[in-house]
Design a protein that fits this description.
With about 160 residues, this protein is mostly helical. It is built from 9 helices and no strands.
């Protein structure tokens, strides 16, 4: 249900292709991987983390509210302080999970911003460091040609 609501809400805000089935598949994969890694059953903390990691990003959509039906049937595990955007990024980038070679890897982290302010915040918060690889996109018409798109996909 939550996924279908996300699809309809994103359309209301003119972002009909912002989330798709790949995001839903990655949500399911992340839920399974987090439960396996922490050797626990599904709980609120894991669901909130995975939902925000896979469906966060649109400022007018409260993903926690959309997926609240599943949160009602889970145990009363405290959600914790990691659910704010900076903490979520910090956990996603610096997590011990990403250093465990046996752990099933998540999708790459994609941060969309219209200027450098987001990068400045991430570097000042020490979430990113000089080893971080950053790719910049462009909205120039010639940069949207298939050659440039293929080149950027290969870089990823």
């Amino acid at each position: 249900d939550g996924y279908l609501v996300m699809c309809s809400k994103q359309t209301l805000y003119g972002k009909e292709d912002y989330f798709g089935l790949r995001d839903f598949y990655c949500l399911i994969k992340m839920l399974y991987s987090l439960c396996r890694y922490h050797q626990t059953e599904l709980n609120k903390r894991i669901v909130v983390h995975a939902v925000k990691r896979n469906f966060g990003g649109l400022p007018h959509i409260d993903v926690e509210e959309i997926f609240s039906k599943i949160l009602l049937v889970l145990d009363d595990t405290e959600i914790g302080p990691f659910s704010d955007p900076l903490s979520l990024l910090r956990v996603s980038i610096n997590s011990e999970l990403s250093k465990d070679s046996t752990f099933e890897r998540y999708r790459y982290l994609l941060l969309l911003a219209e200027n450098h302010v987001a990068l400045d915040i991430l570097f000042q918060s020490r979430i990113l460091d000089k080893r971080t690889k950053i790719m910049f996109g462009s909205s120039f018409p010639l940069d949207k040609k298939s050659f440039n798109i293929c080149h950027n996909i290969n870089r990823i």
